[in-house]
Design goal:
Oligomer: single chain
Radius of gyration: 22 Å
Distance between the termini: 36 Å
Helix content: over 70%
Structural class: mainly alpha
Number of domains: 2
Number of strands: 0
Strand content: under 5%
Shape: extended
């Protein structure tokens, strides 16, 4: 029944596509990108109900003033920007090395559970990062994430070297992959 499971995500996407036009634009988008103050206030009332949103509106105005001189870049411009080329290259290399190396030699019956574990790891890292980013800041999370990723890759290499001698090391490799995904989601 894999085709039913696959079509479920398409059905959810179709429902979102159909109801999306009935939702207002994001208030920060309306104010910061479009400069539409009335539309911003209207969207706030439509999304959050009646109330006084002057403090939130003032915060957005301050953010607008702080980012006035910065240019908003699309994905292609970010990829072409030389100041982020090294970081993007490192991330691409790390992701490709994990995707293409065929790390573990697991039984075919276990592979769906590994895929599920990868999804759960991504969900956990996103939730965890969004809850701690304000407390620690992006710089610490980036440095800590890269450090954890490097350490996990060292342990992963050791587990792969020992996987022929010890059968259970394959499962350690899977756990290390999950931890790598979590470290990647929390940091980079």
């Amino acid at each position: 029944l894999w085709h039913v499971l696959l079509s479920f995500s398409g059905l959810v996407a179709l429902i979102q596509l159909l109801i999306l036009p009935f939702f207002p634009e994001s208030p920060p988008y309306l104010l910061l990108q479009k400069g539409d103050k009335k539309g911003c206030l209207k969207a706030m009332k439509q999304l959050w109900g009646e109330g006084n949103y002057h403090s939130e509106f003032d915060d957005m105005l301050k953010e607008r003033a702080a980012t006035k001189g910065t240019k908003i870049m699309n994905v292609l411009e970010v990829l072409k920007d030389p100041s982020v080329r090294q970081q993007l290259s490192i991330l691409l290399l790390l992701l490709l090395s994990i995707q293409l190396c065929g790390l573990t030699n697991l039984q075919e019956s276990i592979i769906p559970y590994v895929s599920l574990g990868v999804g759960i790891s991504e969900l956990f890292s996103i939730t965890f990062c969004s809850s701690i980013i304000d407390r620690f800041g992006r710089r610490i999370l980036l440095c800590g994430g890269y450090l954890l990723m490097a350490l996990i890759l060292v342990f992963l290499e050791i587990s792969l070297l020992l996987s022929d001698q010890f059968f259970w090391m394959r499962y350690c490799s899977v756990i290390l992959i999950f931890l790598f995904i979590i470290a990647y989601g929390i940091g980079p």
